[in-house]
Structure formats: C-alpha cells, structure tokens
Amino acid sequence: MPPASPAASLITHLTLQDFRTYPRLELEVSRPLVALVGENGAGKTNVLEAISLFMPGRGLRRAELTDMARQGGPGSFAISVALETPYGEHRLGTGLDRPDGETRASRICRIDGLPAASPAAFAEHLRLVWLTPDLDGLFRGPPGDRRRFLDRLVLAVDAEHGARVNALERALRSRNRVLEETPDDRLWLDALEREAAELAIAVAAARRETVERLAALILATRDEASPFPFATLTLEGEIDALVATLPAVDAEDRYRALLRESRPRDRAAGRTLVGPQATDLLVRHGPKDIPAAMASTGEQKALLIGLVLAHARLVGGMSGIAPFILLDEVAAHLDPRRRAGLFDTLESLGGQVWMTGADPGLFGELEGRADILQVSPGRIEPLAVA
User: Fold this and answer.
1) Is residue 43 in some structural domain?
2) What is the mean pLDDT of residues 225-242?
3) Is 42 annotated for ligand binding?
4) For 27, which of 14, 178, 310, 315 could close a Cys bridge (C-beta 3.0–4.6 Å)?
C-alpha cells in the first residue's frame, strides 16, 4: 500500500506588527504558490523571514531578534499566521515582547491563543525549509557554513536538534574555560566531558540519520532528465566515524576518552578540536561524480535547488506534514527550462511555497496558478496585470 501523502496546509492570513520595515501588515493569500515581486529593499525577504520564525532558531537571516524590531518602533514585534490544515484552522503567533518600563525583551510563542514553551512547539502544525542567496557559495565555502546548513536540514525533521546543538556548544565552552583557568581540576573536567560526550553523540547521530535518509531518498527518486542534478552526501569527521561504527554507549565512552587525551592540545589551541563542531558535509555532483565545489556556478545552483527539493520531500515523508518552502530570489538566475521545471516540481510537493523576485516576468507563467503580489515599502497588494 503506498504511503499517505503528507498533509498540506496553507497560510491564509499573515499579520506583521512593527516587524522590520512593516509598521502593520495584513496579508491574505489563497493559493499554494505565492510570489512576492518588487524592487530590492522593498521588503520581500522580510516576509519570508517572518514566516521562518515559526521554527526554532533565528530565522533565515540568522539575525538577532532585537534587530528584527522596526526602527523607530517600540522595540518589540509580533507575527501571526492563520493556518488552514486538513484538521481545522489554527492561529500561530510569535514575536518579541518588551514590557513597559523594561529594557530586556523575551521571545513569545502562542498556539491558538495559548502560550507555547518554545518555537519547537510549532512543529506539531508546520515544517519549514528554505533557500536564500547567501547559500549560493555553500559548496565552496568553509565547513562551518555546511554544518549550519546540515543542522537546519536536521532541525526540519527533529525540532529538538537545535536545543541539543546549543547545549553541546555551552558544554564545550565550559570545558574550554576550565582548561584555560583550572586545568588540574580533573573531577570538574570529567563531569563536563561526560555531559559533552552524551550531547555530542546525540547530535552526531541525528545528523547521520538525516543524511542517510536524505541520500537514500535522492538515489531512489533521481531522474536523469531532471534540470536539477542529484547529489550524493557523506559526513566527514572523527566523531562521525565513531557514530557510524559503534553503538551509542561505546561511542560516548570513546569520545570521552578522546576528550581526556586531548586536554593539553585543546588547552594550547584554546578550543576543543575533536567533535561534532568539526564535522563537514561532503556533497558531490551525482551525474558527473565530482565534488560539488568543482562544478560550474550554474551547476552548483541547480544542485543546491535539487538538494533542497529532496529535503522537502524527506521532511514531508518523515513528519507527515508537507513543509512550507521559502525561496528568496531563487528564479533570478535560472534559464527558462530550469525555471519551468522548478515551478512544476514545487506544485507537486504539496506544501505552500513563498517566492521572491525583483522581476515580475520571472513569474509570468504562474499567472492563474499563483498569488502574485506587488511589494512596496510597507505595503503588499495584488500585482496589476497589464
């Protein structure tokens, strides 16, 4: 019996209050495809960023929440969406609250008017994947960029992954500080390394599971005629080799021993050298069997789009929820064949897609298939068709 299709949901109403360039915005949409067009700086990406905050983390720009509040505003902001699902309508809200007379601001999350503990709670109702122009250099950039990309892939299927990554970073920072200030405090170091080992193996295992599932899905669904070439994926790192070859308990013991052995070296370096913080995601251009970094700029863009589309399928299959897809300026540098292929694939995925572009002509073939909206500073309205 074929697996059930993931549940498709729509954002039908988006409200922004004092967010970025928007003093107040009430936006209604009705279609699975939404295209936002307008000049650079008009506020298109701000809309995508607002939606991206319904996921753990700092959104698609990775900005501080305080920087998202409108300049000249009260220092707080609010975002809410009306979400139409196969099981009824829900209203989700998030933002930054700054009570009167207080200088500190705090993140707020609400589901159907009730407080939620964290953005991870939104995962019961929606999932998100996105692609932004700053990822165009992913394959040629430093390993840290690919690790952040990898962790976002994991986070879309495991809402608690971000909390584990943050906890691991705190544990390693504490270990580094003890190594610098009181390196002979072996009991304290043992305790910190025990905590770090548990978190490190959990983080590495979640990454490995996601990469293996994604790689298998890509190979099982690859289409040689697709305008977006398939990718092959592997993880490189000492901790990843441990997780791949040992049971979790044995991997924790081995990593704890590595931390203990490397104390002098890590103290001299001022950081922990071995662990998930040193993992790299290796991507190859499948049809050519070459490292992605060696492909042409156009091939890399197409490979990245194919990878994100495959990830959207994985998220839908694993969560049972067709993810919302946010694509910032994705069509600008695609030839007509790839652009048409992209739009057709997006429609087949089932989730609502929000796209931006400066040139309305990029979305001409979507007339009648998408909500095409004109964005100007502080305003969004249906695009007038000549």
Assistant:
1) yes
2) 94
3) yes
4) 14
Residue 244 belongs to a domain: no
Q: Binding residue per annotation — 44?
A: yes
Is 69's pLDDT higher than 80?
A: yes
Is 38 annotated to bind a ligand? Reply is yes
What is the Cα–Cα distance from 176 to 338, expressed in whole angstroms? 48
Q: Is 298 annotated as a binding residue?
A: no
The reply to whether 39 sits in an annotated binding site is yes
Whether the CB-CB separation of 306 and 231 falls below 8 Å is answered with yes
pLDDT tens per residue, range 130-182: 999 999 999 999 999 999 999 999 999 999 999 999 999 999 999 999 999 99
364 is in an annotated binding site: no
Q: Give the chain's domain count.
A: 1
Check residue 87 and give its pLDDT. 87
Residues 6+ apart with CB under 8 A from 42: 375, 376, 377
pLDDT recorded at residue 100: 64
> Is residue 301 annotated as involved in ligand binding?
no
Of 352, 354, 355, 356, the residue nearest 323 (C-alpha): 352
Coil vs helix vs strand at 223: coil
Range(s) of the domain holding residue 41: 1-127+324-386
Q: Please state the length of the chain.
A: 386
2: pLDDT strictly greater than 60: no
Q: Is 216 annotated for ligand binding?
A: no
Q: Which residues contact 142 (CB under 8 A, 6 or more apart)?
A: none
pLDDT of 110 higher than 90: yes
What share of the chain has pLDDT > 70, as a percent? 97
